[in-house]
């Protein structure tokens, strides 16, 4: 569960919350989990570089400094921070027309995006914008990631077949592939199919088997032994070894450039917030642990600063990687720090063999990453349980596929807000009637009186400008359709947690409408802060202090007394 945010925490920079308390008894299991995760993650992050459009070694860099920084400064004991397909796809979509993919200029722009995302994350921590994580509903997140998966998987089809295409976008790449089918390199396709078979076969045997690692090691050995390049199979070529150089992104530091990249940085920022916060919450709940969203924001910001200054691209909290570590036995960031050490050894001493890695092998790994993102099970569940939200998810996926990833995330946010507004715009209000001597809520229809002369109307949402007309219409309909003359009209306000200016104006008009019919307006179960809002908007001045009741028995007693007096 999330820790409560206190003033003391506001300016504190806690460290090692994801590591301490340290349990020596579990150290062997943590180290083994880190080793297992390294075997799974190294081929995967190399694949992410194909999505992001950056050199292969930059994928390894995302597991080095960024992962270590979050492990030290984040609060979640489980969240794994590294390269992610969604943010990699957003990066590539934004930079496609700004620089040549894989060039030093392109990489500098990718690092600048990581720097901008870091600034936004730390700013969110300082000024309290963490709530933006909630602006992507589960529905649109499923649709968004499914769209990314379709885009990523289809984008690798030319690489699987050894076809060179120049089209940008999912449809353009598919069209180019179909037009150039006659250029298929059969040796390249054979390598792709072999890698796919090994990875899928290992997954079928046991999810814990590092299928991508077995496939990559096997194809590197075969490429070296049988000289794949002689058969026309393209390979990576030399991969630089050694630690990444610490440097500021080498870009034109102009306002126009920042203005051009800001929408992309904001999209990345929202995806990081949504995925990381949701993952941290889920694992904290699973293991009954605390975590601090504010501390995680700092950790994520520092991780992206590390990415920016070590020449790599944006990093994100990854649900899939977090599950990899948890299923391997990792219970703290010690596992992730172990992975960092293993990657350090690979970068320093083992990049040489990567020169023999066929490009098609990476395309196969990335293709499977994309397929895994296509959440058919999630879409099916949404279709069965919430049909209208299913079409929202499908629309989000379609925008990602046919328009672009960056536009897809903006569309997803807008759809989430529209969906929220739609629910508040048409609240399921009711009237409360007697049922076997008790209170019972029923749809608004006749009979609608609790007792002759008394209507108790329950408004089931905050009152704001979009649903005030519904309030007015329903009050009018109820008083018109009542089976007996209404004397008191009570608004049961337990579900109302906010009243805006327009709603205050509407309530004053409702009171005047009811008074013209000799009906008294009263309120039941009003929250203290809502009462203060009604006072401020002048509603209390019209109805009087005696129109508020804290219990149903008090309301009934007062109504009975007024009936006797009348």
% residues in beta strands: 5-15%
Bulk shape: elongated
- Compute the number of structural domains: 2
- Total helical segments: 24
Strands of the largest sheet, in order across it?
4-3-5-6-7-8
Computed over alpha carbons, the radius of gyration is: 30 Å
Average the pLDDT over all residues and give the rounded result: 88
User: Regions with pLDDT < 50 over 5+ consecutive residues?
Assistant: 4-12
Distance between the termini: 55 Å
Helical content stands at 55-70%
Number of strands: 8
Structural class: mainly alpha
Major sheet: 6 strands, mixed
Please describe the structure with a list of short key phrases separated by commas or semicolons:
mainly alpha, 6-stranded mixed beta sheet, 24 helices, 8 strands
Q: How would you characterize this protein structure?
A:
With 566 residues, this protein is mainly alpha-helical. The protein folds into 2 domains: 24-420, no CATH class; 430-565, Transcription Regulator spoIIAA (2-Layer Sandwich). It contains 24 helices and 8 strands. The chain has helices at 7-10, 27-52, 57-62, 65-73, 85-95, 104-127, 138-155, 157-161, 170-179, 186-205, 211-226, 255-286, 293-309, 319-327, 334-349, 359-373, 376-385, 387-402, 405-425, 468-481, 501-516, 528-536, 539-543, 552-565; strands at 81-82, 316-317, 430-435, 438-442, 454-458, 488-492, 520-524, 548-549. The strands form 2 sheets. A 6-stranded mixed sheet has the order 4-3-5-6-7-8. Helix 12 packs across helix 13. It is elongated, with a radius of gyration of 30 Å. It starts with 6 loop residues before the first helix and ends with a helix.
